[in-house]
């Protein structure tokens, strides 16, 4: 494994991010503010508190997760799809690097960008509501792990996609519903009993629950299970990427 | 001396069943310039892609300086630079960044002085901060070469380096190739321009329909296959080849104002003396003489036709 190759990819990907820094910064600030206006004000006026936490503060972890997950996927999927689309992928395939270096470079950069967005949202949110973070280290760990695991998922989508429509397909049809139904804006305990059971099949529930625990020391599912779920998801994505590079699927003829 | 690149019985069949390479064997010597000639679809790019790791071979093996390109791909690929046929570059990136990326990908320490030397040599230094999309087609091609040279390869593949390039740039490219040769870099280039192979290569390989028809020293090939023609211009028009000369390989041309004699330069007797004596016997007076050697192109066309037959 050569660190220089990882660094080269990482740096190159990050320059693209810095080229569009203003957009990268402004869009999450605006969308977070909109969520607060719509959800915080409209729904918050009806639901004052969820399990002792003000509704405005309650939705912050979910909001951060929502953006971080979407950003991770779109950054990573675009990051690897673009070289495939314009043909520069030849360079990765003919370089003396293994899939580990390529993944570390691309996924590392995509996760860094998503992490940056997450921090920006956290900052914006703290302007609207009073926030306390009960377990700061766990909060950072959950955030970083989410960035990495969903960047891996995005990377797989980017490798798989044969055109721009497919690139949007998985995030739009699968990830967005899972995130919205994963308890970003509500507690699972607020659902009818049957849906409380069904929703446990949604992996995002574990993420948001764990992340919310780090803020407010309250969770829908035990935090240990959340950690196992996210670690398992990361391992699964990594295994798929390894398989793709080993077989050359959608990469090498 | 062991070859720098050894290709053994390399085969590639694409998913659709198309056999792009039908068992290629080739040894390439260190420091030589090998030109691979062949029509479109002959398998030139597949051959290069398979060596460089972009395409997976169906069977056979390739070693670079003894390292297998599949099992020891790190050592093997580290020695290879590739200039692809298509202009594959990120349009919004700066020249210097894309060149630095390649060097980094090959695990080499950042070396600004070296990159400056490479960019200067390719007349790209004043464009180093330009975005790729602002460059002309020829400049983009130079950027591809700069990227390939950035990690100091010992073997350089140039896939159709001068396709769609103007005459000046083509000459420039040839100069760069001979400079690289002087530094000991092995260069393998594919081309359909025969004059390119003729001008810069040491050896010529002819590939057609996935098979390597031959690999030979360029000069030996030209000499072996080279037919020469002697054109004899006549002072007076003749209606037919005189009966006394019909045994010779003579053709009447230019409306009876000239005779063309085809002969083999490799033969001990070319028959020229006898021909001239016979002409004078027949009382034919000559106005001028000229000879012409057949070009690699004619040789190549002949070979491909033979291969197809």
Automatic annotation (TrEMBL), chain A:
Topological category with respect to the lipid bilayer: Multi-pass membrane protein
GO CC term (a single one): ATP-binding cassette (ABC) transporter complex
Keyword field: Cell membrane, Membrane, Transmembrane, Transmembrane helix, Transport
The keyword Transport appears for this protein: yes
Pfam family for this entry, one: ABC2_membrane
Any one GO MF annotation of this record: ABC-type transporter activity
Transmembrane segments annotated in the record for this chain: 21-43, 55-73, 114-133, 140-161, 167-186, 221-245
Main location: membrane
Keyword Acetylation: no
Localization, UniProt: Cell inner membrane; Membrane
Stretches assigned to the ABC transmembrane type-2 domain: 19-248
Family: Belongs to the ABC-2 integral membrane protein family.
NCBIfam families: PRK15066.1 (NF011648)
The protein, known as: Transport permease protein
Organism: Pseudooceanicola batsensis (strain ATCC BAA-863 / DSM 15984 / KCTC 12145 / HTCC2597)
From TrEMBL, chain B:
Keyword Nucleotide-binding: yes
GO molecular function terms attached to this record: ATP binding; ATP hydrolysis activity
Pfam families: ABC_tran
Domain ABC transporter: 5-234
Entries under Gene3D superfamilies matching the protein: P-loop containing nucleotide triphosphate hydrolases
Keywords: ATP-binding, Nucleotide-binding, Transport
InterPro entries xrefs: AAA+_ATPase, ABC_transporter-like_ATP-bd, ABC_transporter-like_CS, ABC_transporter_ATP-binding, P-loop_NTPase
Domain of life where this protein originates: Bacteria
Coiled coil: none
PROSITE patterns, per the entry: ABC_TRANSPORTER_1, ABC_TRANSPORTER_2
Keyword Transport: yes
Annotated protein name in UniProt: ABC transporter, ATP-binding protein
Source species of the chain: Pseudooceanicola batsensis (strain ATCC BAA-863 / DSM 15984 / KCTC 12145 / HTCC2597) (Oceanicola batsensis)
């Amino acid at each position: 494994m050569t660190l220089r190759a990882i660094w080269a990819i990482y740096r190159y990907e990050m320059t693209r991010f810095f080229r569009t820094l203003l957009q990268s910064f402004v869009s999450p600030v605006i969308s977070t503010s909109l969520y607060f206006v719509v959800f915080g004000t409209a729904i918050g006026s009806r639901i004052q508190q969820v399990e002792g936490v003000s509704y405005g503060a309650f939705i912050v972890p979910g909001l951060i997760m929502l953006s971080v997950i979407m950003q991770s996927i779109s950054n990573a999927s675009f990051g690897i799809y673009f070289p495939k689309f314009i043909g520069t992928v030849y360079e990765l395939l003919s370089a003396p690097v293994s899939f580990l270096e390529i993944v570390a470079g691309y996924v590392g950069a995509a996760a860094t960008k998503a992490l940056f967005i997450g921090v920006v949202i956290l900052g914006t949110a703290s302007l609207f509501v009073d926030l306390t973070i009960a377990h700061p280290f766990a909060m950072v760990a959950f955030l970083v792990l989410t960035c990495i695991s969903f960047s891996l998922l995005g990377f797989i989508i980017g490798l798989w996609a044969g055109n721009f429509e497919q690139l949007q397909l998985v995030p739009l049809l699968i990830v967005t519903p899972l995130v919205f139904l994963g308890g970003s804006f509500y507690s699972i305990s607020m659902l009818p009993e049957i849906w409380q059971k069904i929703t446990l099949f949604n992996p995002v529930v574990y993420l948001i629950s764990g992340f919310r625990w780090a803020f407010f020391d309250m969770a829908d599912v035990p935090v240990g299970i959340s950690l196992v779920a996210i670690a398992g998801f990361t391992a699964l994505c990594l295994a798929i990427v390894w398989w793709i590079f080993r077989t050359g699927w959608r990469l090498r003829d | 001396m062991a070859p720098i690149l050894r290709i053994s019985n390399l085969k590639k069949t694409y998913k659709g069943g198309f056999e792009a390479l039908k068992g290629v064997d080739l040894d390439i010597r260190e420091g030589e310039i090998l030109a691979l000639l062949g029509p479109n679809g002959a398998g030139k790019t597949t051959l290069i892609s398979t060596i460089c790791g972009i395409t997976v071979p169906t069977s056979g093996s390739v070693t670079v300086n003894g390292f297998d390109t599949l099992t020891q791909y790190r050592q093997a690929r580290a020695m290879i630079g590739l200039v692809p046929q298509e202009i594959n570059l990120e349009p919004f990136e700066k020249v210097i960044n894309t060149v630095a990326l390649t060097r980094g990908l090959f695990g080499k320490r950042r070396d600004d002085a070296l990159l400056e030397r490479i960019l200067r040599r390719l007349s790209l230094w004043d464009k180093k901060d330009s975005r790729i999309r602002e460059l002309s087609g020829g400049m983009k091609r130079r950027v591809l070469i700069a990227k390939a040279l950035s990690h100091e390869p010992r073997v350089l593949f140039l896939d159709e380096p001068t396709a769609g390039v103007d005459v000046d740039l083509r000459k420039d490219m040839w100069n760069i190739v001979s400079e690289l040769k002087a530094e000991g870099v092995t260069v393998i280039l594919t081309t359909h321009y025969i004059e390119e192979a003729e001008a810069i290569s040491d050896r010529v390989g002819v590939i057609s329909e996935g098979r390597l028809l031959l690999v030979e020293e360029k000069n030996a090939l030209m000499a072996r296959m080279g037919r020469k023609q002697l054109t004899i211009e006549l002072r007076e028009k003749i209606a037919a080849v005189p009966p006394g000369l019909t045994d010779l390989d003579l053709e009447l041309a230019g409306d009876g104002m000239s005779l063309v004699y085809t002969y083999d330069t490799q033969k001990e007797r070319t028959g020229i003396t006898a021909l001239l004596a016979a002409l004078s016997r027949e009382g034919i007076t000559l106005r001028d003489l000229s000879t012409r050697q057949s070009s690699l192109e004619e040789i190549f066309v002949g070979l491909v036709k033979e291969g197809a037959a």
